[in-house]
Design brief:
The chain is of the alpha/beta class and 324 residues long. The protein is built from nine helices and 15 strands. It has two domains: 138 residues, Rossmann fold (3-Layer(aba) Sandwich), CATH 3.40.50; 169 residues, Dihydrodipicolinate Reductase, domain 2, CATH 3.30.360. The strands form two sheets. It has a nine-stranded mixed sheet. A six-stranded parallel sheet has the order 3-2-1-4-5-6, sandwiched between helices. α3 packs parallel to α4 and α7 crosses α9. The radius of gyration is 20 Å and the shape is globular.
């Protein structure tokens, strides 16, 4: 494995995999797209030169891959990951890791037993903008931490990911979708001690549908935090961390294209202390390269326990939900 490319199959060639993962694969020197699994014949033309399957079990039986990137609807993540792991394939699974914490634990247990890598696509961990902001934070630029706020708004046209609007396939709405990213970002900065406080969710959730709005409150040690989620609004993502001596702001913190501006203000935002424009266009490339390195390092198998904890926290927010 050390001197050869990792043969990676993608299970679920939808809009996300086509627009984000495959272009990133083209930039990775140590990975080769060896196969795709897709139930739709419409998604076969651009990939006519590689192995193509309509069923994941056929891919597993023919052993045409070393690892599988699972980019299928959320409800299939656990089942498909477990099938791959049981067959000796490393797995990189899109977020959320699964639609419930129990399934996450099953995935981790099997990966550990089989001595395989199990990663989850929380790509924002690889954002140079977030890494820079965390470095400023760790340098003590903000003084005593007081508040952490996130906004994640986006429009989700049904034609782009129609399954997302089907709770049977998605497992949840904006809280499980964008909220999982936000939880991972908070833990990236503040650590693991997140205490959920409250969750206000639109009435669709309570009628068995997919929620499109959520306002979440949490605490992490002495830091109070909020997350504002909306999947029916114009795109806007914003991160702000406030302290006694400064404030860090990132416009479009969740962007994975072009560049993002990271700004450090004084305590009342009347003066800019530092500012940097950071290229974030290689985030998916970095994520894939780390996965390959983990697979090639046979002495250590990486398991994403943190992604499982993210799902557990999302479940806690759902349990607190009231109508907003």
């Amino acid at each position: 494995m050390e001197n050869k490319k990792l043969n990676l199959a993608i299970c679920g060639i939808g809009r996300f995999a086509s627009r984000r993962i495959i272009p990133a694969l083209d930039k990775c020197k140590n990975i080769e797209l060896s196969a795709i699994v897709s139930r739709s014949s419409k998604q076969g033309a651009p990939y006519s030169s590689i192995h193509r399957y309509h069923n994941l079990n056929d891919l597993i039986a023919e052993k045409t891959a070393d690892a599988v990137y699972i980019a299928s609807p959320n409800i299939f993540h656990a089942e498909q990951a477990i099938s791959c792991l049981k067959s000796g394939l490393h797995v990189l699974c899109e977020k959320p890791m699964a639609t419930n914490y129990k399934d996450c634990q099953s995935m981790l247990s099997i990966a550990k037993k089989k001595n395989l890598n199990l990663g989850v696509g929380h790509m924002l961990r690889f954002s140079p903008a977030l890494k820079l902001a965390r470095m400023w934070l760790n340098e003590g630029s903000l003084g005593e931490l007081l508040k952490f706020s996130l906004i994640f708004h986006y429009k989700l046209p049904e034609r782009n990911r129609s399954w997302v609007n089907d709770k049977r396939l998605s497992g949840g709405g904006v809280l499980l979708d964008a909220g999982t990213h936000c939880i991972d970002v908070i833990r990236f900065f503040l650590g693991n001690n997140i205490i959920t406080s409250s969750a206000k969710i639109d009435k669709n959730h309570f009628h068995g549908g997919i929620e499109s709005e959520a306002i979440l409150k949490f605490k992490c040690d002495n830091v109070h935090g909020s997350i504002d989620l909306n999947s029916r609004s114009e795109y806007k993502t914003f991160l702000e961390i406030s302290g006694s001596e400064g404030i860090i702001s990132i416009e479009s913190f969740a962007a994975t294209w072009e560049s993002v501006t990271v700004t450090l203000y004084n305590h009342n935002k009347s003066r800019v202390l530092k500012e940097a424009v950071v290229d974030v266009s290689e985030i998916y490339v970095s994520q894939l390269n780390e996965f390959v390195n983990n697979v090639k390092n046979t002495a250590i198998n990486t398991l994403d326990y943190s992604a499982a904890e993210n799902v557990k926290i999302i479940e806690e927010f759902y349990s607190l939900a009231i109508i907003q």
